[in-house]
Specification:
The structure is a single chain. By secondary structure, the protein is mostly helical. It has one domain. Helices cover 55% and strands 9% of the residues. It contains four helices and four strands. The strands form two sheets. The protein has a two-stranded antiparallel sheet. A two-stranded antiparallel sheet has the order 3-4. Helix 2 packs antiparallel against helix 3 and helix 3 packs across helix 4. It is globular and about 75 Å long.
Length: 140
């Protein structure tokens, strides 16, 4: 009987709602967040020339992707691929660090959605973005 009452009491507790992207503070100043943002900022100027040329674009998942490598020679392609290989893990690290700053990995989906929205908003006009269906277009 005691177990039944405990079970009923547990089931009556409200389930914790998953946080929504509008509840996320993307400007946390925890040390891991600051370190990753610094790393991203240092790389940004090298990525811009590839964004401007339409070679690298912003994927629907918030990661940068090689969009059109046809105009690159081998050395340039290797530079672009290395930048992407360094950028995307840092983007994921930023999301994980922000989630931890909010209280744990349960925040990760909301943080990811909010951060993708921010990256899309900060993406310059004329740069390429990928939609959910995998089609590329130039941001107006």
């Amino acid at each position: 009987m005691k177990r039944l009452l405990l079970l009923l009491a547990f089931l009556a507790l409200p389930a914790a709602a998953a946080p929504s992207p509008d509840q996320v503070n993307l400007d946390l100043g925890t040390p891991p967040v600051v370190i990753v943002k610094h790393s991203l900022a240092q790389r940004a100027s090298r990525l811009v020339r590839f964004y401007d040329a339409g070679i690298i674009g912003l994927g629907a998942d918030g990661m940068v992707k090689l969009r059109d490598a046809s105009r690159l020679n081998l050395a340039q392609r290797q530079i672009a691929e290395k930048l992407i290989d360094n950028e995307n893990p840092d983007r994921n690290s930023l999301i994980y660090a922000l989630a931890e700053g909010h209280g744990g990995q349960g925040w990760e989906p909301a943080v990811r959605a909010a951060q993708i929205q921010r990256w899309k908003a900060q993406w310059h006009s004329g740069w390429w973005v990928e939609d959910a269906q995998g089609r590329w277009s130039i941001k107006p």
